[in-house]
Amino acid sequence: MSSRPTPKPADMRQRILQTAGRLFAERGYDATSVRQIAAELGIANPSLYHHFPSKGDLLAELLRGPLDRVTSALAEAEDLTGEARTRRIVEGMVQAVLLHGGVAATALQSPAGTSEDVRRALADAGRPDVTSVLASTITTDRQELRISMAMGAVEGAIRGLAEASGEADPTDLQHDIVELVMRLLVDP
Asked: Which distant-in-sequence residues (6+ apart) come within 8 Å of 123 by Cβ?
């Protein structure tokens, strides 16, 4: 009789987070079911619910890391002004997405374009209002459009690099991504 060692609860929790994060990034949050996550792990749904009461709670936990990164950048930017402040915020956004991939992209999406479950998870994870902070630092024409394009550029650049499957290391391109986003936000 062969038996596999039972993973420790902390190990299983981490495996669930890793699998869910990958599936959310690949398929999208709304298109990924708890059943799919459990099947990928080879566990029953109740085992997953033992660690996370809901799919929304799982997403909220996954979002804590990227949101903490953005929140730190916002705090660091408080004493800065103008373009330096905007740049620090953008760097924090890019770092969050680079470190946490598609899950972080979910955190930076406009709340209007997300499901109620995602909005609740963002609120539970303490989503900083990056859009409002950027709006307070940008005084150019078409402010709302520029911010929307910048948020999309961060998400799109990282997703594009991820799909290039190893052709380029996204962290090597961090400076280039930040510069592109800054061009979208600040008049030359």
From this structure: none
